[in-house]
Amino acid sequence: MADTTITAGANDIIYTGANIASLISGHSGTYTLSSGFTLYVPFTNATAGLVDVSSLVGRLDPQTTTTSYFPVYSAINGSFDSTPIKTPSVNVSAGVVIWVPVTSSLATLVDVRTLISSLSASPPASPNTPPGPSSAASSQVAGTGASTSAQSVASGDTSGTTTSTSQTSISSSNLNTPVGSNSATETSPTASNPTSSQNLASPSTPAIGATVAETTFIGAVAGGVIGGLIIGVLIGALIWGLCFRGRPGPMAATTPSTRDSRDRKSLPTVVAKEKGAREVEGAAVATTWRKHLPQEKDDHAIIREFQSMFVQIQLHVEGFYGPEVGKVSKRTVEPIERLAPGQLPGLLLHTKDALPILEAILARWIVQRISLRSDAKYSLLPIEFAGIPEQNKWHMETDGRENGLAAESRNGFSQAFAEWRVLTGFLLPNPAPIHDGTVGVEANIARAASALTQAFAPWELPGKSNGDRTGSLRVILQLASKAGILLFTQPSTFMFEWSSRAGAQGNSLIVTPALLRRLDASGKPLRSAQVLIEPRVSSI
């Protein structure tokens, strides 16, 4: 297949993956980033100096559905540099274009304008910063790159490079880099300004110097003698007072009132001062170590996590299942009833559009396993998170009539429960990366993906493989587990609510629940629950 050349300006985005490359220009609206594909977002350096590449990569992370990573690429002297930048910083000349890769494990919508704005807000290169350690991956980058052209080879081989003063030839095989991080620890050289001292002596006559020295010596001896006498008197008085104060005798018996009342008050005063000092010191220590605990996430980050999860559930059901494939019977619904007992499976017997019901069943099944509502051994959270709440019947899910935490009436429970969640998340070794997490969660995800796929089999659309359905569902469950861990470790307490705040009735079905904040970061109940995500209601 012939090479395809795509001319890209210095501010355009290159879209690559599966040995193809295309161009996104204009930066208007959103763009669908397919699974396994990569966007290369440009950053044009305006001034020569040291560019903080780590900062560029980190600026694209707030879009939680995507991941930015090393290595990044650049243009040197109008030509694409095939040597990737793997170091946290690099020296560049003015006008050099640096492309930061962004990828996603799931198909997702990417706001192109947000990506461009994030990098455009990055600070320019530091002209006075010394260069970092010299290596092949962090060599000096010089030249300009005003525009870019991307070439694609169907076989994956790299194609030739054409250069000019205004465009760069980029081979798509150079851009198709495995997702990973090769970031190194950035070190900054510390400037040392040693100071030297000089002893300057003024010229003087020997007679004057000898007189001054003699006078100083005599004064020092006299001062030492007087000081020694004073110290001796004070020590003797202290010993005398201790000896006679501790012995009962005529003086103690006949003159009890001679003690100053201030002596009796001095001990409590000292104790109170010491206690206050210890409290201040303890508060300082608490502030120091608490800053390392999981901190409250921005509401927008939490909303994005769960909105993405609900959207992926909807796309999965609509992409792999049909509203009515064949005749549905009680026997057909039994596998779903075993997995998700309740009223929802029975609705499948009396509807012509099964999709919203299937979506509601899947959403409720997932939410129960990240809200501490399910058995700990089947949870999508680590067993360390789910074990104690299961024993005490604590959960963060409600249908509007009951609250899984309100039944606990002990004073201080809300604050203790929030503190326990944060500390458990902090002490549990590396709970966030599911693929590197506990074996129990991975095993639960694998079993659940297979069981749910089999239960939904009567509504499968033809032409889709069972492996594709199971794989898609497994990715969704991993996303749900990650979102559940995030919610569990928040200082605030959240609740999933399966009721419509708009008062929907009749043939309405709540497909996905509302997400509410019930307690603030200090564990105090809010006067009215804060709604982060509204429930989604569908007619059946």
From TrEMBL:
Polar residues bias (residue ranges): 140-154, 174-204
Biased composition (Pro residues): 124-133
Domain of life (superkingdom): Eukaryota
Name of the protein in question: Uncharacterized protein
Keyword terms of this UniProt record: Membrane, Transmembrane, Transmembrane helix
Transmembrane intervals: 217-242
Source organism of this protein record: Friedmanniomyces endolithicus
Ranges for region Disordered: 120-204
